[in-house]
Design brief:
- With about 800 residues, the protein is an alpha+beta fold.
- It contains 24 helices and 32 strands.
- The protein is about 35% helix and about 20% strand.
- The protein has a four-stranded parallel β-sheet, with helices on one face. Strands 6-5-9-19 form a four-stranded antiparallel β-sheet.
- α1 crosses α23, α17 crosses α18 and α20 packs antiparallel against α21.
- The structure holds one RNA strand of 86 nucleotides.
RNA sequence: GCGGAUGUGGCGGAAUGGCAGACGCAUCAGACUCAAAAUCUGACGGUGGUAACAUCGUGUGGGUUCAAGUCCCACCAUCCGCACCA
C-alpha cells in the first residue's frame, strides 16, 4: 500500500496543538527542566535560517525532556530596547514603540512556524513598563548597595551612535554595533561596580558546564593577575612613583621606569631641557586614537630628565614617558626589566638603555642578549636573592617586599567597571533624581516604573545629553527626599540591562509585587540549559552572571549562577557564489535565506530535520537549499512505511526486535551527546533497514512502528502526532505517561557479526562469526577464509572480539 | 605575537585506536511513461584491470602501535578570540 505524505494537511491539522499543552503540567511531582533560548532582538529583517537552527535545537531538547517526564519551562520573549530599534525608527520616521511592536508580531509569526512548544503565557518584553519596572528596581538596589555610582571620566564614545559604550562593546577599537571607530570623550557617567564581583565571577566559572571557549574568554576578560605595588622615590624630590608589577622577583633588573602620558606626574617630572619635548609627547599622545596607539608596533617615548631610586638597591634609573603604558591599568606606571620582558626589551634597544639580566636559564653568566628571556631559571645579579629559583621567588617576592616595607601585595584585573548610561532615547530611564541639596536620590520604589516619556524628537543629540534632556516637564521634578525642585537623570540604560535578568522573570512574569516570587524562583530556577550564539561570551553572559550574584546577595534568589549548562550553536553561513567560501549571512551580502518559503514548500518538520542534518550543531555550516529534498524524501518514505503497516498483523521477528532496540540505543546516545546531525542520519539508516525487513517479511509489527514514531517526535512533531493518532492513541505522543522509549542492552547486540580479517594490518576479507566464538575458532575461520592470501611465517595473531582479526606474517 | 577551533570524495558530512567515506545532495545508468516530472533499482575517491582483484588515499613531514582520520612531535592553511594589562 502506498501512502502519500502531505505535509500541508498534516501540519495544518496539528498547528498549535502544543500551544495549549495538556502534557506539560506541573503536577508537583515532576522535576523541573528549564530550557532557555537567548531571546531575540526583534529586528525589522525577521528571522533567517540561522536563527531557526538555534530554536530547533532547543525545541528538540525541550520536547525530549518533556517526554522524559520533566515539567518544562521553555519560554520566549523580546529584547526590544536598544540602538537598532531606535535607528530603524529614525530612518523610517516611525516611533520605536510602533516599529518594535510590528517587528515582534512578524518574528512571532515566524517563530510559530517552528512549532516550538514555547509557553507564551510566560512571554516577556523588556520594553514593557511592567517588566522594566524591575530593571529599574534592580538599579535602585545597586545604587543603595553602592554598586551604581556616578563618575566623570573619559569613556568610549561612538560618534555614529552618539553614545557612550561599555568596554565590552568595543571590538578592535570599533563600535560593536555599527563598526565606527570609537573615540574617547569625557562624560559624566553612571557606572556599575562589576569589578567588585571580579573574583567571584572568575572563581565560579569552575562550577559551570559551559564550553571551554567561553570560560576561557571570560577568564581572560576578567584578567586577574597577582603581583606587588612598589614605591620608587624620585631623586631630589619628595615625590614617589608607585608601580604595579607581576614580576617583583626581577626588581634588581629594573633599569628604567615608564609612565603613561596621562599619568598625573608625567608633565611635572620634566626638567628645563626636556620640558618642551615632554609636553609635546603628552599632547601628541592625547591626540592619538586608541586604534592608532595599538597599531603602532614601533615604540615611542621621551625621557623626562628625572630619575627614580630603586628602593631595593638604591640604583638610580631614568624615568621615561611612553604610550605603551596604559593609564587606566595598575598605577599607570611600570618598572622596566628589559632583560625579561619583550616590550621593555624593545624599548631599551630603541633608546639604548641598559639591560641587566637577573635570571639565568642554567645559572651561568648571561652574555649579550638577543631577546628578552621570559622563562624561569636561577636568580643572578640580585644581591641576597642570588641562587634562588626564579619561579619560587616570583611567588615569594610580594610578601618579602611587603615585609621590608618597600611595597605591598596587589591583585589586579583587566575587567573595568561597566559604563552603564547611554545618551539615547530608546532604553529604560535611569531612576535617579538629582537634588541640589540631597544629591543623587533614587526614585522611590512605589513610584516605579519610571515610564519612558513619549517624545517628538528621539534623535540622538550628540552632545552627550540624551534626547530626554529636552523634555522640560519630564526633567523638572521634585526631590523625593526633601521636596525641593530637582532634575531627573536623563540618560537611559544600555541594551544589556533587561537581558541581564529576563530569565528570572519568565518563572513569574505577571507578579506585580515582586521581581519574582521567591518560592517560584526556588522551584524553577536556575536555567538548566541555555542555547544561543557565542557572540555574547563576554557581554550578556558576563552581565547576567553579575546580576545573578547581586540578586543572590540581596536575597531575591537563592543561587549565584544563572545558567548551569550552555550550548553555543554554530552559525549558518551562505555560500559565496564565486569562491564557494562560507560567508556570514547578512543583508548587505544579500545571501540571507528566509525560512518562510521553505516552510511553505517542504513543511516545518522537513525544515526542522534539515536544520539539524546540515552538520554538527556546535559548528558553523553552509546552507545549501538543495539538500532539503533529501530529508523531505525521507519523511515521505517514513510516512509511507509506518502508515502502510497500520493494519499489519505481522508477528515481531527477532530481527525486528533487535533492530528497534538498537535504534533506541543509538538515537538516545546520539541525542544525549547533542550529535543531532547523526540522529537524523540515524533515522534514515533505520528507516532504510526497516524497509528492507518489511519487504522481506511482508510487513512490520506494531511495537517497532510505534517506537519509530516516539523517537522521531521531538524532531518532527507534526508527522509523529499524525502517525501516533493513526495508530489509535488519543493522547499526544508527548504525554509523559508514554515516556521516552527504553531499550534492553542485550537486545542491541547480534548473535552473529561480520568482522574484517587483516594480514599485516590490511583487510583481505571478511567473515561471519558468532559473537561468543573463542579466539582459536575465530582465528581458524579467518585463516580458512584467507586461503593463499596468507603467506609466510605467522609472527603474531590478534583477535579483538567484535572488532578485528589481524594476522602478522612474514 | 598569544590562545582556541577546523582541515576526510564534486558538495554537506560519518567513523569508543580496529573493514575510511555511514547518511544525504549532485551526477550517471536502468525501470515506469507517448513524453516529462515524481517514484523505484543500481553505480558513484584516484590509478590499473572486462572482472576477481591490486594499489594509492583523511592538509604536509616525522613518530608510537599488530593496527592511526583518531595518539605524540614539528609544520602549513583557514576561521575565531585576545592583543602593549607590565
Amino acid at each position: 500500500m502506498k501512502v502519500t505524505y502531505n505535509h500541508k494537511e498534516i501540519e495544518k491539522k496539528w498547528d498549535g496543538a502544543w500551544k495549549v499543552n495538556p502534557v506539560n503540567v506541573d503536577d508537583g511531582k515532576k522535576e523541573k527542566y528549564y530550557c532557555l533560548d537567548m531571546f531575540p532582538y526583534p529586528s525589522g529583517h525577521g528571522l533567517h535560517v540561522g536563527h531557526w537552527r538555534g530554536y530547533v535545537i532547543s525545541d528538540v531538547w525541550s520536547r525530549y525532556k518533556l517526554m522524559q517526564g520533566y515539567y518544562l519551562i521553555h519560554p520566549m520573549g523580546w529584547d526590544a530596547f536598544g540602538l537598532p530599534a531606535e535607528n530603524y525608527a529614525i530612518k523610517n520616521g516611525i516611533h520605536p514603540s510602533i516599529s518594535t511592536a510590528e517587528n515582534i508580531a512578524n518574528i512571532k509569526r515566524q517563530i510559530n512556524q517552528i512549532a516550538a512548544i514555547y509557553d507564551w503565557d510566560r512571554e516577556v518584553n523588556t520594553t514593557d513598563p511592567d517588566f522594566y519596572k524591575w530593571t529599574q528596581w534592580i538599579f535602585v538596589q545597586m545604587f543603595k548597595a553602592g554598586l551604581a555610582y556616578e563618575k566623570e571620566m573619559p569613556i568610549n564614545w561612538c560618534p555614529s551612535c552618539k553614545t557612550g559604550l561599555a568596554n565590552e562593546e568595543v571590538v578592535d577599537g570599533k563600535c560593536e554595533r555599527c563598526h565606527s571607530e570609537v573615540t574617547k570623550k569625557n562624560l559624566r557617567q553612571w557606572m556599575l561596580k562589576i569589578t567588585a564581583y571580579a573574583d567571584r565571577l572568575l572563581d565560579d566559572l569552575a562550577t559551570l558546564d559551559w564550553p571551554e571557549k567561553v570560560i576561557k574568554m571570560q577568564t581572560e576578560w576578567i584578567g586577574r593577575s597577582y603581583g606587588a605595588e612598589i614605591d620608587f622615590p624620585v631623586e631630589g624630590s619628595d615625590k614617589k612613583i608607585r608601580v604595579y608589577t607581576t614580576r617583583p622577583d626581577t626588581l634588581y633588573g629594573a633599569t628604567f621606569m615608564v609612565l603613561a602620558p596621562e599619568h598625573v606626574l608625567s608633565a611635572s617630572l620634566a626638567v628645563e631641557e626636556t620640558k618642551a619635548a615632554v609636553d609635546k609627547y603628552i599632547f601628541d599622545a592625547s591626540m592619538k586614537s586608541n586604534v592608532d596607539r595599538m597599531a603602532d608596533k614601533e615604540k615611542t617615548g621621551v625621557f623626562t630628565g628625572s630619575y627614580a631610586i630603586n628602593p631595593l638597591n638604591q640604583a638610580k634609573i631614568p624615568i621615561w614617558i611612553s604610550d605603551y603604558v596604559l593609564a587606566d591599568y595598575g598605577t599607570g606606571a611600570i618598572m622596566c626589566v628589559p632583560a625579561h620582558d619583550d616590550r621593555d626589551f624593545a624599548f631599551a634597544k630603541k633608546f639604548d638603555l641598559p639591560i641587566i639580566p637577573v635570571i639565568s636559564p642554567d645559572g651561568q653568566d648571561v652574555g649579550e642578549m638577543e631577546e628578552a628571556y621570559t622563562g624561569s631559571g636561577i636568580v643572578i645579579n640580585s644581591g641576597e636573592w642570588n641562587g634562588r629559583d626564579s619561579a619560587e621567588l616570583k611567588e615569594a617576592a610580594p610578601a618579602e617586599i611587603e615585609e621590608r616595607g618597600i611595597g605591598t601585595k596587589k591583585v589586579n584585573y583587566k575587567l573595568r567597571d561597566w559604563v552603564f548610561s547611554r545618551q539615547r532615547y530608546w532604553g529604560e530611564p535611569i531612576p535617579i533624581v538629582h537634588c541640589p541639596k540631597c544629591g543623587n536620590v533614587p526614585v522611590p520604589e512605589d513610584q516605579l516604573p519610571l515610564v519612558l516619556p513619549d517624545v517628538e524628537s528621539y534623535q540622538p543629540t550628540g552632545t552627550g545629553e540624551s534626547p530626554l534632556a529636552a523634555i522640560d516637564e519630564w526633567v523638572n521634578t521634585t526631590c523625593p527626599c526633601c521636596g525641593a525642585p530637582a532634575k531627573r537623570e536623563t540618560n537611559t540604560m544600555p541594551q544589556w540591562a533587561g537581558s541581564s535578568w529576563y530569565f528570572l522573570r519568565y518563572v513569574d512574569p505577571h507578579n506585580q509585587e515582586k521581581l519574582v516570587d521567591r518560592e517560584k524562583a526556588d522551584k524553577y530556577l536556575p536555567v538548566d540549559m541555555y542555547i544561543g550564539g557565542v557572540e555574547h561570551a563576554v557581554l550578556h553572559l558576563l552581565y547576567s552572571r553579575f546580576y545573578t550574584k547581586f540578586l543572590n546577595d540581596i536575597g531575591v534568589i537563592d543561587f549565584n549562577e544563572p545558567f548551569k549548562k550552555l550550548f553555543n550553536q554554530g552559525m549558518v553561513c551562505g555560500r559565496d557564489r564565486e569562491t564557494g567560501a562560507a560567508t556570514k549571512m547578512s543583508k548587505s551580502l544579500g545571501n540571507i535565506v528566509s525560512p518562510d518559503d521553505m516552510v511553505r514548500d517542504y513543511g516545518c518538520d522537513a525544515l526542522r530535520l534539515y536544520e539539524l542534518f546540515i552538520g554538527p550543531p556546535e559548528l558553523d555550516s553552509i546552507w545549501d537549499e538543495r539538500g532539503i529534498d533529501g530529508v523531505y524524501r525521507f519523511l515521505c518514505r517514513l510516512y509511507s512505511l509506518v502508515m502502510s503497516n497500520l493494519e499489519s498483523n505481522v508477528e515481531a521477528t527477532d530481527e525486528m526486535i533487535r533492530t528497534w532496540h538498537k535504534m533506541v540505543c543509538d538515537i538516545t546516545k546520539r541525542l544525549e551527546s547533542f550529535s543531532l546531525n547523526t540522529v537524523v542520519s540515524g533515522f534514515m539508516e533505520y528507516t532504510n533497514k526497516l524497509t528492507e525487513i518489511s519487504k522481506k517479511e511482508g510487513g512490520l509489527d506494531r511495537e517497532t512502528m510505534e517506537t519509530v514514531i516516539r523517537l522521531i517526535a521531538p524532531f518532527a512533531p507534526h508527522i509523529a502526532e499524525e502517525m501516533w493518532q493513526a495508530y489509535g492513541h488519543e493522547q499526544s505522543v508527548f504525554d509523559s505517561r508514554f515516556g521516552w522509549p527504553t531499550y534492553d542492552e542485550a537486545l542491541t547486540k547480534d548473535d552473529e557479526i561480520e568482522i574484517g580479517v587483516q594480514v599485516n594490518g590490511k583487510v583481505r576479507c571478511t567473515i561471519r562469526i558468532p559473537v561468543d566464538i573463542s579466539q582459536e575458532e575465530a582465528l581458524a575461520k579467518a585463516k580458512e577464509a584467507l586461503g593463499d592470501k596468507l603467506q609466510g611465517e605467522i609472527r603474531k595473531e590478534i583477535y579483538v572480539p567484535g572488532r578485528i582479526i589481524n594476522i602478522v606474517a612474514k
